[in-house]
Structures are given as C-alpha cells and as structure tokens.
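Students often ask what a holo structure prediction actually looks like on paper. The answer is less mysterious than it sounds. You provide the chain, you provide the ligand, and the output is a string of discrete structure tokens encoding the 3D arrangement of the protein together with pyridoxal-5'-phosphate.
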Amino acid sequence: MSISENIQKINDEILDIKTKNGLKNEVKLMAVSKFHPAQDVLDAIKAGSLLFGENRVQEAIQKFPQILEENPNVCLHMIGQLQTNKVRHAVQIASCIQSVDRIELLYEIEKQASKLNKSIQVLFEYHTAEDSKSGFENKEEVIKALDLCANNTFPHIIPNGFMTMAPFCNDEKLIRKSFTTLRNLKDELQSDYKMFNLSELSMGMSGDYKIAVEEGSTLVRIGTAIFGERNYNK
Ligand SMILES: *Cc1c(COP(=O)(O)O)cnc(C)c1O
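The corresponding structure tokens follow.
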C-alpha cells in the first residue's frame, strides 16, 4: 500500500473507533518520519499530513528546514530523548518538544527559545511502562515543572499536555494501563493548573494506537504503519 493509502486507512480506523466509543475529541495523526527520506515526507504532505515527528535532532535538521519553508502549514515535533546540547537546533526547527523528561531541559529550552524570540510548546513525557527508560519518573517532578511554568520562569514555553510510550509487548491490559495512567495524570493536573491548556495526550504508535484512541489519545504517533519498516542500517 502507498503512503497515502496507509494514511487514509489509519484515519478511517480512528474515526471508526471514535464513533464506536462516542468520543468527541480531536485525534491528530502524526507521521513519524525518522529513518525515512524527505521524499516520503513530501508524499505524506500530498496525502494531507500536516504533522510530523522526528526522534533525532541531527536527522531532523537535515531533512526538514526546506520542507518547512516550502510548506508553512506543516509542523514538526521532536519526540525523542533530547540531549541538552541539541536543544538549540530542536527549538529552531520544532513547534513542540514532546519529550520533556526533566526540569533541566526546560531551562535550556527557555534559554534557546528566548534567543530566537520564539514561543515553543512542550509536552511532559511521563514514564508509564516498566521496560521504558524515558519520561518523568514521578508525578512530584512534573508538578515541580508545572509550578515553575506557573511562576513564569519560562516565558517562551507553552505547556500543552503529556506524552507516553506504552510497553513493547502484546499484553493489551498492560498497554491500556499505561494509557489510562497518562489520562488520569492529565485529568488531575489539568484541574490543578487551570491557567494552562494541558489537553494534549500524545499516546499510541503503530502497534497500539487503537487502544490509545479508545483511552482518549488526542495525538497518535505513527511511523511504520504509514511509511513501512525502518532500515536502521542506512
Ligand atoms: C519511532 C517512534 C514512534 C513511531 O513508532 P511506530 O511503531 O513505527 O509507529 C512513536 N513515538 C516515538 C517516541 C518514537 O520514537
């Protein structure tokens, strides 16, 4: 199947799940283009994709500047673990950093965004799966981060919600638990921090997005099911 057929099929499935479950929220389909060439991104844009995700800053700054210049409606989010020394380039190219997993990173994002006089959205990545290493490990740290945001420590940063990775396994219960943990965190913190819109729930990948949408995902991050298998040897 072509990239455009894959996108169509996934959008149809998302709509179907929303209808079946009476879900009214928007579910954005992010095309995760890591390890795929710029031409694949252009094909996805032709098929209507406006939202892309990349893991590695190095790869993103090679692939995306021209695409973003020529397609002003297209947004790029960084979704991979971000080293502090890569923040400058990440802030230049992305409209959102979904993988904020430590407070130190917020200070660096603010520093770089203020230099560019650019506002940037962030999601707090939360650790919900035993086998994953990424994300804030506990709620108290996320609260600390939100308190700093609320005190206007980071005037160029717009907190926008939460992101997680479910465990890589076939156990539907475990996967679902990961997503409900994130949704519960969002519900609780949204009611405590009404000055922010924390409604984004970035959860669900090729293997588990149907469960994620059932559990309230507002943004699914899909690579393989759109672009095919990644070739890591390239
Ligand atoms: C690679 C990646 C995805 C997409 O994974 P697929 O299984 O190919 O859909 C989603 N989220 C993150 C954080 C990723 O690194």
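The CA atoms of residues 205 and 231 lie 18 Å apart.
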